[in-house]
Amino acid sequence: MGTSAEPTVPAAVVPVAGRAGGSAGGRDRYLDLWRAAALVRVVTYHVLGWIWLTVLFPAMGLMFALAGSLMASSLDRTGAGAVGRRLRRLLPPLWGFGAVAVTLLLVTGWRVAPSAALGWGELVWWVFPARTPPVGDQSWAWAYNVVLWYIVTYLWLVLLSPALLAAFRRWPWYSLALAVALPIAFRFGVVNVGGYFNEQATNVSTYLACWLLGFAHHDGLLRRIPARRYALAVAGLAVTGAGWVLLVGWSSGNYDLNRIAGGNTLWSMAFVATVLRFRPRLDWLARIRPLDRLVELLNARAVTIYLWHLPAGVLANSLVTPLAVSGWVQIVAVRLAAVWLLVAVAVALFGWIEDLAARRRPALVPARVSPDRARTARPAPSTIAVPSTIAVASVGAARHWHRAMASTVAVLAVGLGVMALNLWPGVTTRSPAQSSPAEVTYPLSDLPMLVDGSSERPSTPPAAGATPGSVTVHGQVYPRAVLTAAPSRVRVQPPAGCERLRAVIDVGTDDVQVAFVVRADDVTVFESGVRSRADTAEQIDVPIASASFVDLVTSSPFGGAVGVWADPRFVCAS
Fold first, then answer.
1. Nearest Cα to 121, choosing from 103, 134, 110?
2. Phi, psi for 439 (deg, rounded to 5)
3. Of 269, 217, 276, 262, which is closest to residue 238 (Cα–Cα)?
4. Peptide bond into 487 cis (omega under 30)
5. Can you tell me the distance from the alpha carbon of 436 to that of 438, in angstroms, rounded to the nearest whole number?
6. pTM
7. Contact criterion met (CB below 8 Å) for 42 and 54
């Protein structure tokens, strides 16, 4: 980055990541802690559907950056053979997961060939996931492939890494600038791959810059940038990325970072760059042995946890629903406890595959990393010098800039999270100054639907005396309604230009409990929690952000339960 009036931090005083990744031939506990936190955040988001978590903690960008750093380290040690080793670590756990998933789906009624180009040949992506593998038409089948986009994107980045690392080391800043520009070009249609692998190309472009930041971290390039210049660059990136996210969220009401192309890359990069440069001491972690051990276990079984957490979440929801749990805090605590308990069962049953993939002795519980390998690297004794007054002042200035950088990103993250929650006093998620375009509504009952794999219209309400297509909910008559059995899924393709789904939800049968979920392109955008007839009808207004398809999902532990979607309609700009 050139020279600066701000002196760089003396290498003899501050540990440098360098090509060893910041540890003395072993695990870097700082990176392990962040990887474990990212994994917990991903599980929490998918189980509870809290959109604000995506902007508060952009975990996916961080996971790709940490993976990029490890990939660069592997390429330095073993050359191009590192690609095969990474695939060996990735694919066997996926094969175990796929064997269970595909068998379960086939046994429970998957009979229709995948709609993509290869038909049943699409099953090949369960073996080599260059595309997201297909699943069946069952209402719960989505849980087995909706998160596999990460595995697919990781695979492509691993395959491209030898060429990417060579290009990065020859033109580091040009490569990083191109990686930042690429998703923006995709967003505005300047670049459009199209075709069979369009989704994969888009995902790779979104997280390529974070992957390259991992390269920069491994090579020690980030440490060589003067602290002031680095902090100012990150602050500029954070303000730009947060502003982009805020603009989209303010205008559309949707703050899901996964659906904000371009802004996702910029905000994730700012967060990742802060994490990779700002390294507080972690002496406290070793003193809290249960937490230290938990971090170690989460890292040792990360692939298994990621693969199985969403099916565990669906199963946990069905188990928790009959419980008489009241209160928001209690419901959240019980659901998370149930999910992690089921994840622990999955880890016990299938975690040993990760040991085999890493050519370790299979174990129910991975062995501890020796203390020598867990310590943070220290400079070699021959390089340690007594710091001069200038060096001490330099370190103090660097710490000041690092704290300012971390504080800026933290404040912006909390602000975005608050906006996503719509908790800012007097402020809505849509700008009051924005003129609302004329709206056109399309009743859901007028659109073709796919109900649990069969194309059909919803049946008329079962209540005696009800007119066809109408339903009475707590004394209010709604002329159009869609009634669904629980559990079930209704899939519908909204008309072009539609941004929101509006409906009233209620339970159609006495003494039962039903949970309502809305998903746009397999991303949860609304979740009601468990409802019963004792609850009043709820009006929902859900952003769907021009989704290609929308799923209305109901679940219940009781047979014969009915979920009422009263007057569901898509709202579109005219």
1. 134
2. -110, 145
3. 269
4. yes
5. 7
6. 0.71
7. no
Work out the average pLDDT over 335-354: 94
In this structure, are strands 513-520 and 561-573 parallel, antiparallel, or unpaired? unpaired
CB atoms within 10 A of CB 380: 9
How far, in Å, CA of 298 to CA of 43, rounded? 12
- Decide: helix, strand or coil at residue 482: strand
- CA 279, CA 449: separation in Å to the nearest integer? 52
Q: Among 88-102, 415-429, 508-522, 553-567, where is mean pLDDT lowest?
A: 415-429
Q: Round to whole Å and give the CA distance between 447 and 467.
A: 20
Residues in Cβ contact with 551 at an 8 Å cutoff, skipping those fewer than 6 apart: 142, 489, 490, 491, 517, 518, 519, 522
Distances from the Cα of 390 to the Cαs of 7, 111, 304, 429, 518, in angstroms?
9, 73, 49, 49, 59
DSSP string, 436-488: PPPEEEEEGGGS-EEETTEE-PPPPP-STTPPTT-EEETTEEES-EEEEEESE
Burial of 162 (0-12, 13-18, 19+ CB in 10 A): middle
At residue 444, the 3 state secondary structure works out as: helix
Instruction: State the Cα–Cα distance between residues 344 and 228, nearest whole angstrom.
Output: 44
Mind giving me the DSSP string for 182-239?
A: HHHHHHTTSS---STTHHHHHHHHHHHHHHHHHHHHHTTTTTTS-HHHHHHHHHHHHH
Q: Is the pLDDT of residue 395 over 50?
A: yes
Least confident of 9-18, 328-337, 524-533: 9-18
Look at residues 49, 5, 35 and name the one whose alpha carbon lies nearest to residue 523: 49
Q: How far apart are CA 321 and CA 335, in angstroms?
A: 9
Q: How far apart are CA 52 and CA 15, in angstroms?
A: 34
Instruction: Compute and round to an integer the Cα radius of gyration of the chain.
Output: 25
How far does Cα 246 stand from its chain's mean position?
19
pLDDT exceeds cutoff 80 at 543 = yes
In this predicted structure, the answer to whether residue 384 has a pLDDT above a threshold of 50 is no
Rounded CA-CA distance 151/411 in Å is 31
User: What's the pLDDT score for residue 513?
Assistant: 80
Q: How far apart are CA 458 and CA 423, in angstroms?
A: 37
- How confident is the model over 142-175, as pLDDT tens digits? 889 889 999 999 999 999 999 999 999 999 999 9
Q: Where are the alpha helices (DSSP H) in 49-134?
A: 52-56, 59-78, 81-107
Residue 128 has what DSSP assignment? S
Comparing 209-223, 452-466, 557-571, the range with the smallest average pLDDT is: 452-466
Residue 113 backbone phi and psi in degrees, to 5: -65, 145
DSSP 387-434: PPHHHHHHHHHHHHHHHHHHHHHHHHHHHHHHHHHT-STT--SS-TTS
| Cα–Cα distance, 448 to 441 (Å, whole number) | 15
CA atoms within 13 A on the CB side of 5: 0
User: In this model, does residue 435 exceed pLDDT 60?
Assistant: no
Residue 513, φ and ψ in degrees, nearest 5: -125, 140
